[in-house]
Specification:
about 525 residues, alpha/beta, 26 strands, twelve-stranded antiparallel β-sheet, nine-stranded parallel β-sheet
Length: about 525
């Protein structure tokens, strides 16, 4: 009887311990299977000791790698996005009934069981689009190696697709700390600005209907609001960034057939050469910057998508960026650099960034990743050390290591709080682990286009969070909408706060909500925001 009872206790304890067993840390060095376009890869794919996956020759569209390991259906996962968040990035259980994009996560995946947080991903600057899926019984990695929407034709070339990285978290380590340490493995050599970046951007108060004279007056108003605040003079001066609306495009009343095309001159409404704008911005002790859509055809949407393998794009982009720097610009915001070759926002379905058949590209010997990343390198080289680069709609893992700043979320708004609420706090919270490690995060602007469109009590909170978060702060505010002395003081104080280096703010409730409201900042202070 006693022996039977002892056996029962031992069996129950084994069952209990089995149920409570921590999730496995999956060794990426030992995949269970590797396939190319649904067929066993054999010797065609090689996994080197340093984690590099190499594809040998021929044609291919997708490489799939599977690893076995117990993660457990109750574990939760957070992954990357192809280029930025769209308000739905969140920690989700592996067995959740509804998961965006079928549970696929671009570039990396963090997995937590509540006691430990592990990371699996690929190092930045890969030659394939890498997408993960975490399952209760293991991990899957899909590598899109197409050339546009056609199979790549490697010939006899061997291509290093990506370098796998993994990190086992420490027991009791916060998911936030684990995530940031894992990001350091993915991006060991970031290119970061030498000082915090902040200032004025005119998009969310002008929406492309601006003049140089008005832009300069609004920028001067905000610079003076900052300098009027008590304290020592601010030596790290703000940026004044002209967004869409200055260029010599037909949609703005310009004539791109004239010398310089769309990006070599300004339209009549803007009314001032950009070199003069740069000089006047510097005269107010600010730093000039502008917005640029390199692939925008003057014929409009009908001419999209473009073929990024056309060498003419490389020539144009290089010439445009050198010209901007010669004008005296110190920052360039490069926009639409995924949409214009793919014509898709957000890649909301499946495990690939290419969602529709694209026209045949001239060059099918390079993967989409090789082509697009190569263009980013051209942009970096042309901008040189004279201009900071802000990637907007830029592929995230290609921007990291090349661009100083990256827009981490979809557009906020100067007219609709619901959009700012959806996009802003989600991007800032779920991508805080990237900040200062991949690049400097840009969570987008705090803006107001028309009186009464967004209550100040709500915009004030968004302003406070961005200013204290250690990320880039840009405000879009007309001087006539800042007649209240409290608003003027708050805008100036936020700029002053953003001008000084700060540790990255930590979202304390990011495991529980897609829009974190509880934050701890680098100085030890905490704040609770009401996004409703």
């Amino acid at each position: 009887m006693r022996q039977t009872f002892s056996l029962f206790v031992a069996a129950f304890a084994a069952l209990l311990l089995g149920n409570l067993r921590a999730m496995d840390f999956v060794s990426l060095a030992a995949p269970a299977s590797v396939s190319v376009d649904g067929q066993p890869a054999g010797t065609r794919v090689d996994l080197r000791p340093d984690g590099t996956l190499v594809l040998r020759g021929g044609t291919a569209s997708c490489v799939r790698v599977v690893w076995n390991g117990r993660l457990g259906a109750d574990a939760r996962a957070l992954g990357g996005m192809w280029e930025r968040t769209y308000g739905d990035s969140a920690w989700r259980r592996l067995n959740a009934a509804e998961i965006p994009r079928g549970g696929t996560m671009a570039w990396y995946v963090l997995v937590t069981d509540g006691r430990r947080t592990d990371g699996y991903g690929v190092r930045v600057q890969p030659n394939a689009f890498a997408c993960w899926r975490a399952r209760a019984e293991g991990l899957e990695l899909f590598l899109d190696v197409r050339a546009g929407s056609n199979p790549v034709e490697l010939g006899d070339r061997s291509l290093a697709l990506c370098t796998l990285v993994a990190r086992r978290g420490a027991d009791g380590e916060s998911a936030f700390s684990a995530g940031r340490e894992f990001c350091r493995l993915m991006c060991p050599a970031p290119r970061l600005p030498s000082a915090p970046v902040y200032g004025y951007n005119d998009w969310y108060c002008a929406y492309g209907r601006n003049t140089a004279t008005n832009f300069l007056a609004d920028a001067k108003f905000l610079v003076e609001a900052m300098d009027a605040q008590p304290g020592e003079p601010v030596t790290n001066r703000p940026f004044a960034v002209v967004d869409d609306g200055w260029q010599n495009a037909r949609k703005h009343g310009g004539d791109p057939s004239k010398p310089g095309g769309q990006w070599g001159a300004v339209n009549p409404r803007w009314g001032m050469p950009m070199a003069d704008v740069a000089r006047r911005v510097k005269a107010m002790r600010a730093r000039p910057g502008l917005w640029y859509r390199p692939f925008e055809p003057d014929a409009g949407e009908a001419a999209l998508p473009v073929d990024p393998t056309d060498p003419e794009w490389t020539r144009r982009i290089r010439a445009d960026l050198v010209r901007f720097a010669d004008w005296g610009m110190e920052l360039v915001k490069i926009d639409f650099i995924t949409y214009d070759w793919n014509v898709v926002w957000g890649f909301e379905l499946g495990d690939s960034p290419v969602k529709r058949p694209l026209p045949a590209w001239r060059d099918r010997t390079r993967t989409t990743a090789e082509v697009v990343r190569g263009l980013y390198r051209v942009m970096r080289e042309a901008a040189g050390d004279r201009m900071l680069v802000v990637g907007c709609n830029a592929i995230d893992h290609f921007a990291a290591g090349l661009f100083e700043l990256q827009r981490i979320g979809d557009d906020t708004s100067g007219r609709e709080w619901a959009r700012t609420r959806k996009m802003g706090p989600n991007a800032l919270g779920m991508r805080a682990i990237h900040n200062g490690i991949f690049y400097l995060n840009d969570g987008d602007c705090v803006g107001l286009a028309d009186a009464g469109r967004i209550p100040w009590r709500l915009n004030r909170q968004w302003l406070d969070l961005v200013a204290r978060s250690g990320t880039a702060l840009f405000t879009s505010w007309k001087r006539e909408l800042a007649v209240d002395p409290e608003i003027v003081r708050a805008l100036g104080a936020a700029w002053r706060e953003a001008a000084s280096p700060r540790a990255t703010g930590e979202p304390l409730d990011w495991l529980a909500t897609p829009r974190p409201s509880h934050w701890r900042f680098g100085d030890g202070s905490q704040a609770v925001y009401d996004w409703e």
